[in-house]
Predict the structure of Class I SAM-dependent methyltransferase.
Amino acid sequence: MFSPQGPSLRELAIQALSSVERGYDLLAPKFDHTPFRTPDGLLAATADALGPLGPFDQGLDVCCGTGAGMRVLKPLCQGGVTGVDFSAGMLAQAREAHPDAEWVRADVRDLPFEQAYDLAVSFGALGHFLPAERPALFSGVYRALRPGGLFAFPIAAPPPISSVWYWTLLGFDLVMRVRNAVWRPPFVMYYRTCPLHEIRDDLTAAGFTVTTAPLPALGEREDGSPRYGLVLARRPSGS
């Protein structure tokens, strides 16, 4: 799962026993050599799906990490692009990889932007927020977008209960719950707390109009349904 340039088991253990912010500060120099980085295929599929919905001017990557989302935003946005994250270590890596972008350190549950962007994206970050925290996140993205602006992020279809992947994710979440019950500070990272119907409800409550689009390039499940879809949450033009 990890390249030789990736973190050791000891480094991962130290990260897992840290807070989310401190953990990612520690992991940042080797993050792009782990399977946690958003795969290029997912970035490409997202960019392909968003292309016909543009053009866009200003772009924002929410929970940008080391800046992988810039591979989506830069080709689509005619104006500037910005990444926001609360990990100084991750932002340092992003700044080195993409010096032409703007980087902002902030808690995305309290985004410091007001009607500044036309497109916002996010990749692999929702599991770091408890369900009770999503309304603040989505409301902040809503405020950050101009009227008519779009918030887009890919989401995986839930694996069937008969699959190894289902039980792997369930086991991971159970381990994390036990860890957070007995160890402080907590490290919030869950894979099964973001079902689409709850995300759709939270986005709608924040004011978005929500649709989804399949990402067929990423394959199909056994029943023929797509393995991934793209959530498209638009701030109404008159808002």
Summary: The chain has two domains: 1-37, 38-158+195-234. Strands lie at 59-62, 81-85, 102-105, 117-121, 145-156, 209-214, 228-234. Residues 38-158+195-234 form a domain with the Rossmann fold fold (CATH 3.40.50.150). DSSP finds eight helices and seven strands in the chain.
